[in-house]
TrEMBL record:
<dbReference type="InterPro" id="IPR000361">
    <property type="entry name" value="ATAP_core_dom"/>
</dbReference>
<dbReference type="GO" id="GO:0016226">
    <property type="term" value="P:iron-sulfur cluster assembly"/>
</dbReference>
<dbReference type="GO" id="GO:0051537">
    <property type="term" value="F:2 iron, 2 sulfur cluster binding"/>
</dbReference>
<feature type="domain" description="Core">
    <location>
        <begin position="25"/>
        <end position="106"/>
    </location>
</feature>
<protein>
    <recommendedName>
        <fullName>Iron-sulfur cluster assembly 1 homolog, mitochondrial</fullName>
    </recommendedName>
</protein>
<dbReference type="InterPro" id="IPR035903">
    <property type="entry name" value="HesB-like_dom_sf"/>
</dbReference>
<dbReference type="InterPro" id="IPR050322">
    <property type="entry name" value="Fe-S_cluster_asmbl/transfer"/>
</dbReference>
<comment type="subunit">
    <text>Interacts with CRY2, but not with CRY1 (in vitro).</text>
</comment>
<dbReference type="InterPro" id="IPR016092">
    <property type="entry name" value="ATAP"/>
</dbReference>
<comment type="function">
    <text>Involved in the maturation of mitochondrial 4Fe-4S proteins functioning late in the iron-sulfur cluster assembly pathway. Probably involved in the binding of an intermediate of Fe/S cluster assembly.</text>
</comment>
<dbReference type="GO" id="GO:0005739">
    <property type="term" value="C:mitochondrion"/>
</dbReference>
<comment type="similarity">
    <text>Belongs to the HesB/IscA family.</text>
</comment>
<dbReference type="Pfam" id="PF01521">
    <property type="entry name" value="Fe-S_biosyn"/>
</dbReference>
Length: 109
């Protein structure tokens, strides 16, 4: 059995470029506008929190509620002056999604 010799060189990089990361959640302009409207009436709240809850056999249900503080494990998304916090349990299911607000004659989504 022959032994092989492996050599490696390590050098320090002083001017490393930071790569921009993609936000966990993006908001459409209509969603930003609606969240701003909702928070205008609640000055003690700093943003909204998105979470998930288990709903029987059909899987997960999303929740949206006002929040006064950022939780320890919450992911924070700031877009156009709106702060959205994502609960830890919801982070993987919401990663890369887009939040929208649509209003028509039959519903508000």
């Amino acid at each position: 059995m022959s032994a092989s010799l492996v050599r490696a060189t390590v050098r320090a990089v002083s001017k490393r470029k930071l790569q921009p990361t993609r936000a966990a959640l993006t908001l459409t302009p209509s969603a930003v506008h609606k969240i701003k409207q909702l928070l205008k009436d609640k000055p003690e709240h700093v943003g909204v929190k998105v979470g998930v809850r288990t709903r029987g056999c059909n899987g997960l249900s999303y929740t949206l509620e006002y929040t006064k503080t950022k939780g320890d494990s919450d992911e924070e998304v700031v877009q156009d002056g709106v702060r959205v916090f994502i609960e830890k349990k919801a982070q993987l299911t919401l990663l890369g999604t887009e939040m929208d607000y649509v209003e028509d004659k039959l519903s508000k989504l």
